Amino acid sequence: MADYVPTSVVLPTTGWNGACAEVVAQLREEDELLVVCDDENEAVADRVADVSNARLVVAGDPEGCSGKANAVAAGMEAAEHDRIAWSDDDYHHPPDWLEGLRQDYEEHGPVSETPVFVGQDPLGAFLEPTQALSGTLMVYVADIPWGGAVMFERDDLGDEDAFLEELRRTVSDDGLLSEYVDVTTLGRTRRVEIGGSARESLENQVRFTQIVRNHDVRGIALMTGIATVLTAVAVLFPLPMLALTTLSMAAIYAAFGIRRWTFLTAYPVLLASVPLTLYGLARHTFVWGGRRYRWEDKFDVTVVSE
Fold first, then answer.
1. Which residue ranges make up each domain of the chain?
2. SS3 letters for the chain?
3. What is the CATH number of domain 6-108+145-182?
């Protein structure tokens, strides 16, 4: 058995919540939890002070990057250990979450879990098949890291200083990580609730599209081309394509343990896929975490408003 390697868990959050408590319960004595906030939060500071191996990290307001990227960079700089785990605060961390990542790292090297995004409003629910394809299936098949549950070591980055410098100039933490670290993405999934209103779901659509545009230009071109062809076929042969897309999406849902009725929207979502992609490409501003960002290029980010 490999020697135990202590882990620094970086957890950006706006306040102490259930996810923080879940991670704390999984820490070994040598591990640490970095709870990262934009500014000094007295309530969070009081809770962190009660945990011997947890610390509050104040990242400050982002300048030229997203709040998430800024928080992750601050957490990594404050972390004491070489082995790093990133986590989000918007999903349930079962008791074996951290130990599972640790064991998987010993077997595979850098590893990531797979998200399942669940819409919390009618539009978000309607669009779930697009998330199942791009946010779940493709993340798993292409070994794309998900910043909500990933473990790696500093040496895996190659040039950590360059990574952190670029992280403070971009939006997507996991998009950039994919360019520095080769990960094994596990089939183990985590349910992440997104949206809440039609506007939030549209903003998420723009952000996700812009992530692909800025980190995989050929990928977005290929996706748009395939979607265009499939849409044309769906219009020409509606009944066969209705059956094919619905059954195919049901199979994807089953493969990842997604128990949602929303696979039934696969066909109309296919018809809307090209307009949605073009909408996401045309808009370079979007709201994320209470801030509006203008993302013109991978390293050209402006915080427009809060």
1. 6-108+145-182
2. CCCCCCEEEEEECCCCCHHHHHHHCCCCCCCEEEEEECCCCHHHHHHHHCCCCEEEEECCCCCCCCHHHHHHHHHHHHCCCCEEEEECCCCCCCCCHHHHHHHHHHHHCCEEEEEEEEECCHHHHHCHHHHHHHHHHHHHHCCCCCCCEEEEEHHHHCCHHHHHHHHCCCCCHHHHHHHHCCCEEEEEEEEEEECCCHHHHHHHHHHHHHHHHHHCHHHHHHHHHHHHHHHHHHHHCHHHHHHHHHHHHHHHHHHCCCCCHHHHHHHHHHHHHHHHHHHHHHCCEEEECCEEEEEEECCEEEEEEC
3. 3.90.550.10
